Structure formats: structure tokens, C-alpha cells
């Protein structure tokens, strides 16, 4: 009897060892992909935008951004691991559940003008009405297909594209594409994308800062498959007793609600201002693609506290054209805040550009408003 018990437990132990070793075994399997040129693979990835899929993904961001008051959600997203279940029926119809020890925070996108957020900790469902034209990054932006498509779109045709070694991702053979931005002012050194060679669906993305050997942002699927869209999955179904609220996209804009009404110039730091949509003239976007920076003029207490908050969080104090300021430098994202002398608001400049370019733009802007 004792021998039988030992054998039984030996079988259980062997089974557990095999189960734990499956990911290692899967990654060691041969990787076979068809011969594709960089142009062919890029075309297939871009064409996969409408591909319906479901899966589980994780992103790992190591931007090193210091905590800044009012932006804790953003800094946590860009510093650490985000675990996500995702279902996509179309680019404007999807659901992303963010999983954590505290519960779930689920986002449902139902077309361009309506979305929902479910907070399991507070048992609250919030309906968001209106299009979020300008917003802070959210977890859905870090799902591999969304991240890859944005990187390819922003890189443009001027970037260099090359084929890299394939990998096995989520149990599938994935073809590799490297994207190298053309503009040396971009903080992005390269983007590596591995995608299903047939459908073009991106399975893994690594974004490297300029001169870095380790990715500042990595996102990959651990499990993914084609999905037949199910309205029951994409529509929130609150249980009895669940709280419900309604808000507008503008009220979620955070710091955007404190913008000063000031005319921004057509050019800063040698970069042309991009066209803006009606109603958003207080937001300036300059450059383009992976070399874009935004400019905001923040008023009120949020503006008054911006420079000391950044310095307290570890930013470097600056003096720009007689104004007080501070600089945050992190892989992929740089930012400068500056308060012109005698003015009641503070400028925030941030983007995927070098600190040198931001300093030139901040100097141009400060000198311009000081003379006005």
C-alpha cells in the first residue's frame, strides 16, 4: 500500500512538473514562418486592424516616471505590469478588463461616442458620452495590436523597416518586423513587432528608447485566438444593486479641464503646429508622428503647483527665458513645465522628443508670451 501511494504521488508530481514546464516546452518548439519582405509584413499588420480576436495580454512599462499629483493613474500605467483580458470585434467595438489584486476595471467601447467603465471595487458602472478627442493613455492603448498599429502609423513611410528573427508567442510562430524612426529627435530608438504571418495580427511589441538595449515598453499575448463577436461580452450587464453614473468625455479630461485660453504660436522649436479640431484651440501639437510634442497652458492652482510638484517628484529645476521651470526625463517621454515671469499660468510641454528640442520650444514660447 505504501509503495502504491508513493507511485501515485510520483505520477501527480510528474504531471505537475510537465504542466509547469509547458510554457518552456512551447517556447523551445521550432519557429517556422513564410518568407515575407518587410513591406509585405508591414502591409499585413496594418490590414489586421479589423481582425476580431480575444485573449490575455500583459504589458510591462519601465518609463521611470516620478509620481506627480493628479497623474497617478498614468504613472502607474507606465511603471509596471498591466494584466489585461481583451475582446475586439472592431476598432471601435471592444472590451478590455484590467486585472489587479484590488479587483477589475473594465472598459467597454461601443462605437465612437459611447463607452462604459466598470469598477468592481466600488461596484460602479459609469457611462461616458461623447468622443474623447484628447485624453491620457489608457490600458487599451497597450494591447499588442493597438500599440503596434499606432507605432507603425506614427512612424510613417520615412522610417526604416527590416525583417528580424521570428519568435514563438502565445504558442504561435510569429514573424518579426523592426521599425527604426527616421527623425533623430525622436526618443524612440526602434520598435520590434512580432505578428501572425497569415492574419498580420500583432502578438508582441517591444519599444526601445534611443540608445537602450532593453525595451522601455513591452506588450505580449500569453493567449490569443480569432473570436466570433458576442454582444453579451461587449455589453455591460450590471447586477442588482450596482451603482450607475453618467458623465461626459470632457469631464474625464483631468488636467485638460484647467487649460488657459491662450493663442499658441504656429511654430515652436522649429516644428510646425499640427491642425487642431474645433473646440480644442487651447491644445497645441507640434511636429508629427513619433516626433510629436504637445503644449498646454494650465491655469489655477493646478498651474501654480505644477513646477513645485514636478521638482518634488524628482524633476530637474530649470530657468527658461527668465521663467521658473522643471524637467522630467524618462525613456520614450520627456516633459518640461515652465511658468513665464509675471504670468498666471504654467506651460506643460511633453512628448516623444529629445529634451533639447523641448527646451528650445519652451524658450521660444516663454520669450513670445513675455514680449506680448
Keywords:
372 residues, alpha+beta, outer membrane lipoprotein receptor (LolB), chain A, Phosphorylase Kinase, domain 1, 12-stranded mixed β-sheet, 6-stranded antiparallel β-sheet, 24% helix
Provide a brief overview of the structure:
This protein is of the alpha+beta class and 372 residues long. It folds into two domains: 28-248, outer membrane lipoprotein receptor (LolB), chain A, CATH 2.50.20.10; 253-371, 2-Layer Sandwich (Phosphorylase Kinase, domain 1).
Q: Bin the strand percentage.
A: 35-45%
Level-2 CATH architecture of the largest domain: Clam
Number of strands: 20
N- to C-terminal distance? 94 Å
Number of separate structural domains: 2
Question: How are the secondary structure elements laid out?
Answer:
Blueprint: H1 2-28, H2 38-47, E1 53-62, H3 72-77, E2 79-90, E3 93-100, E4 103-110, E5 114-119, E6 124-129, H4 144-155, E7 160-169, E8 172-180, E9 188-195, E10 202-209, E11 215-226, H5 231-234, E12 243-248, E13 267-268, E14 271-272, E15 284-288, E16 291-298, H6 300-312, E17 316-320, E18 323-329, E19 334-339, E20 346-351, H7 355-371
Parallel strand pairs: 6-12
Antiparallel strand pairs: 1-2, 1-11, 2-3, 3-4, 4-5, 5-6, 7-8, 8-9, 9-10, 10-11, 13-14, 15-16, 16-20, 17-18, 18-19, 19-20
What would your notes on this structure say?
- This protein has 372 residues and is of the alpha+beta class.
- The protein has two domains: 28-248, Lipoprotein localisation LolA/LolB/LppX (outer membrane lipoprotein receptor (LolB), chain A, Clam), CATH 2.50.20.10; 253-371, Phosphorylase Kinase, domain 1.
- 24% of the residues lie in helices and 39% in strands.
- It is built from seven helices and 20 strands.
- The protein has helices at 2-28, 38-47, 72-77, 144-155, 231-234, 300-312, 355-371; strands at residues 53-62, 79-90, 93-100, 103-110, 114-119, 124-129, 160-169, 172-180, 188-195, 202-209, 215-226, 243-248, 267-268, 271-272, 284-288, 291-298, 316-320, 323-329, 334-339, 346-351.
- The strands form three sheets. The protein has a twelve-stranded mixed β-sheet with strand order 7-8-9-10-11-1-2-3-4-5-6-12.
- Strand 2 (79-90) and strand 3 (93-100) form a beta hairpin.
- It is globular and about 60 Å long.
- The model is unreliable at 16-27 (pLDDT under 50).
